[in-house]
Design a protein that fits this description.
5 strands, single chain, alpha/beta, globular, five-stranded parallel sheet
Length: 359
């Protein structure tokens, strides 16, 4: 039995303010001509107004990239172009400031934080602030064994909640949610296939850029893990323990607590989409607090986003993960918030002048 009251999230998560969203939408008619001239930017501004609770939306302040890092035991089956157990190399690059997320973050004013949940390396190789939430070293091979124990899944889930609370308390205006993993797209595909009721082949993508033979191994691993996932579909924490991982449990906990705290989130790729799908099963209103950043080209991501009714803001086929896709959407959100905050409303014309112009 879980020590976390999952049902409580359904009651705690509220929808963004629909009245504020309506006020924001109506205001555009007094700001921009022709009506609808700003297209999707206006819709993004309306979403930002609703999640911020004010119209017009205020400019985005303190955007933060959170990268949950872990190695997955299933990578030992040769399902990735990267060698199993090497996600620490990705994490070290991000810590050093040389990852794609760091480059884009510097350009767009977003800080980057790496959170080691289950990297397969000596924790001494990384700063203590990075390893503070580590649950274990790597995870089980989900085709034949559980990724985590129930206790480890709960620990990771609570860590995600704690991080969401910390960001909300710090006044973070927007979180861009990514992952650093080897084997993560395989794990994500298992969760998505299980929750959407599809076959392995439907959700098996190319991930890190795999060839046909590797794709077939990946598909077989997903098929085998699905057999282990289906018996625990009714218990989200048990599902994350069986075929997820510490990063997946933490991201799911983060997404749910962020929705409770009314903290807006941009999803990155297939891993965050899979966690969003799990979180939606817990609290159906939670996806109202998220937007999807980038279409990665992964079939599983398409399936998950369709199920939670989110459409990617950009479609550049960025499959690198690591928050890159979410960051590509940040300038659009920044533009939407600035236009909403700074464009003035047109003054109302006197009634008699309007009548004269109609003649």
């Amino acid at each position: 039995m879980s020590g976390i009251e999952m049902d409580g999230f359904g009651a705690l998560v509220e929808r963004p303010d629909a009245g504020v969203r309506r006020d924001s939408a109506e205001r555009w008619g007094r700001v921009v001509k022709p009506a609808g001239g700003l297209g999707k930017l206006a819709e993004l501004a309306d979403w930002l107004a609703a999640v911020q609770g004010q119209a017009p939306a205020r400019p985005i302040t303190g955007p933060k990239v959170l990268l949950f890092a872990a190695d997955h035991g299933v990578a030992r089956l040769g399902v990735s172009a990267r060698e199993a157990g090497t996600a620490s190399e990705l994490a070290k690059a991000a810590v050093a400031g040389s990852a794609p997320a760091n480059v884009l973050g510097r350009q767009y004013g977003a800080s980057v934080q790496v959170i080691d949940m289950a990297l397969d390396c000596d924790p001494a190789e990384l700063p203590e602030a990075v390893t503070a939430h580590r649950v274990r070293r790597g995870s089980g091979r989900i085709d034949i064994e559980d990724a985590l124990t129930q206790e480890e899944a709960e620990q990771a889930f609570r860590a995600g909640m704690t991080i969401a609370d910390a960001e909300a308390d710090a006044g973070t205006g927007l979180v861009l949610l990514g992952d650093l993993s080897v084997g993560g797209t395989t794990t994500a595909a298992v969760l998505i296939a299980a929750l959407c009721g599809t076959d392995a082949s439907v959700v098996t993508g190319r991930g890190s850029g795999i060839d046909d033979l590797t794709w077939m191994r990946k598909c077989a691993a997903i098929r085998d893990a699905l057999r282990r996932a289906r018996p625990v579909l009714g218990d989200q924490l048990a599902l994350l323990a069986a075929v997820g991982g510490a990063d997946f449990a933490a991201i799911t906990g983060f997404l749910l607590q962020a929705a409770v705290r009314k903290l807006p989130v941009v999803l990155d790729g297939v891993v965050s989409a899979a966690c969003g799908l799990v979180a939606q099963r817990v609290a159906f209103r939670a996806p109202d607090w998220w937007v999807a950043g980038n279409a990665s080209g992964e079939a599983g991501q398409d399936k998950a986003l369709d199920r939670i009714s989110l459409e990617p803001l950009v479609d550049q086929g960025i499959a690198a993960g690591g928050g890159t896709g979410a960051l590509l959407a940040l300038p659009l959100l920044q533009a939407a918030s600035l236009l909403a905050a700074e464009l003035p409303e047109e003054p109302e014309k006197p009634q008699d002048l309007e009548d004269t112009e109609d003649l």
